[in-house]
Amino acid sequence: MAPPKTVYAALPATTRGFATHMFSGTTPGPKGFGPNVVYTNGRSVFIRNIQDPTIADQYSGHAHNTTVAAYSPSGYYIASADVSGTVRIWDTTQRGENPLKIELKVLGGEIKDLAWDSESKRIIVVGQGSERFGHAFLFDSGSSCGEISGHSKVINSCAIKPSRPFRAVTGSDDFNVNFFEGPPFKFKQSNRDHTRFVNCVRFAPDGSLFASVGADSQILVFDGRDGSLVGKMDEASAHKGTIYSLAWSPCSKEILTASGDRTCKLWNVESRTCIATFTMGPSPNDQQVGCLIDPAGQLLSLSLSGAINYLNRDQPEGPPLRVVNGHSRPVMSLAYMPESNTLVSGDNSGHVMHWDVATGASTVVLQADAKPGHSNQVSFILAQGPTHAVSIGLDDTVRAVEVEKPAFGSAVHALPSQPTAAAAHPNFSVIGTNDGMLHLLSAADEGPFRVLSSINAKLPGTAVASLAISPCGTEVAAGASQNGTIHVFTIEGQSLLVEKPAFTLADSNRATVSSLAYSPDGLWLAAGDSVNQVVVYKRDSSGYTSQGEDWVYHVSRITSLAWSSDSKHLASGSVDTHVYVWRIGADGKPSSNKTALLHSHVGQVSALAWIEPKGKPEGDELLLASAGQDGCVKFWPVPI
């Protein structure tokens, strides 16, 4: 299977009140790339190019949610850790395969931070545990190379001096900064100048100094050789909130700090004065919980929202040079707008994103008051004409998205019950709810939404499980949540729903009809069920006829179906993490010829969309976008 052509990677996972550690590095070798930032989200580790964030690798070898990951100084390995106390060390050079070097269970609880020595031989990990809060070991054998002791509470951060003689430092919830000699590493002394939790400790690249930051807003600087306190950064310019993270410049002369007061500050180490203050927005999500300085000197900070900010050191009072936005939660819905070559996506936290497919630029879709448009999962994003999309959430609201701005429009409609299915036509949309009702709504570009018609679908199992609208806009297919039946309704005068006789999805299957899609030419209706089956029906004046070729390679619920513009390729996504692309053969019948995109996402595939800027296939391959439980949107080349 070919790797994805482009990845809109999930943002780093963040938690309010806690630091999120990011590290930089470069992958060597013929397939190498960099400099990169490495971070975690869910069970995945993401390696993301700093210059072009659409270049990204995803590692998904952990069985539990990951917490921190860091390159070895050589770049050949990454050590990643998770909430179970497990560390996995894996190869970076074999992209897509990333063979495992070793897996070790080192702590009894969540690992908070880890550090490599400059020889890429030794690792220290710290975090929670019943017997110990830290451990030092050799990366290739797992053998102990010292003892991390002297703390009475969880250790939040650690660092190893990058030059000989090696030293190590840790910071803890017990307010202590502990200093170690080695290897083998052994406790030397404690510093108790912090009055609250210590969140981050880091050595300067030249090893001469190290610094610590904490919830007391202090920045302490220590001698890197003996651990003695050198001084504190100017308190007159201090942060007004918890400091979560610090990073050293490559020259070892500056420190960048990130704080819950929604600012980052750049400090001169020699004079211990603040050089620049970068102020973010007014929202709680603008709290700064992580920071990094890449090898070229680019300042990066991490917002609580997950956004990665490229800070402008020449104009600190202005906006960042760039903000990489995206999803940090599972992506549930996706719509492609060919006229503007843009994608709109929604996730299970209520966030809606706008993507420029040509550049990868991302924008958060907000209301006029700069607030999110939904307070809960965005279950459906529907393209409706060249300028508008419709978003439908589990907050029981329907909203218009103005794609060109991009922003939520003023049109909003409150549904009487929870939406369970939806489909759109340029002139209207149809929404099914958990009480079995179908609601026909006016188009998003016509001002306030109007309910044109409502009807009780009377489906087996009550709830409407899936919907599709024929391209001509005269028929609506509704999938039942029981008995495998599809009910077809006609739309008369674009304002009235009238039911036609129902037909069964498959005689041998009584599962939920979980997904429906009409082909653009209107000749086919594809149906997927909650077990593993995709069935294609031919549509003509006499009705719908099953074509006999049931596509059953999935092993779980079908979550999404999408036809290409030429009506010859049908993509299906499933809870089983796979995407299959099926074909209509030259004889005009469903073919067994398929393209398999196995393990497309970590977790279920939630939504699919074909990327066709000119409304038709170009060249010898198609491009398919998929969205999934891992918070990513991926673009897959599919041969025609």
TrEMBL record:
Q: Which SUPFAM superfamilies match?
A: Quinoprotein alcohol dehydrogenase-like, WD40 repeat-like
Does the record bear Repeat in its keywords? yes
Cite the InterPro entries for this sequence: Quinoprotein_ADH-like_sf (IPR011047), WD40/YVTN_repeat-like_dom_sf (IPR015943), WD40_PAC1 (IPR020472), WD40_repeat_CS (IPR019775), WD40_repeat_dom_sf (IPR036322), WD40_rpt (IPR001680)
Keywords on this record? Answer: Repeat, WD repeat
* Repeat keyword on record: yes
One of the entry's Gene Ontology molecular-function terms is:
actin filament binding
Gene3D superfamilies from the entry? YVTN repeat-like/Quinoprotein amine dehydrogenase
Q: Where are the WD repeats?
A: 59-91, 191-232, 236-277, 324-365, 551-584
Q: Name one GO biological process term.
A: actin filament depolymerization
The organism's place on the tree of life at top rank: Eukaryota
Kindly list the GO CC terms recorded for this protein: cortical actin cytoskeleton
Q: What is this protein called?
A: Uncharacterized protein
Its source organism is Fonticula alba (Slime mold)
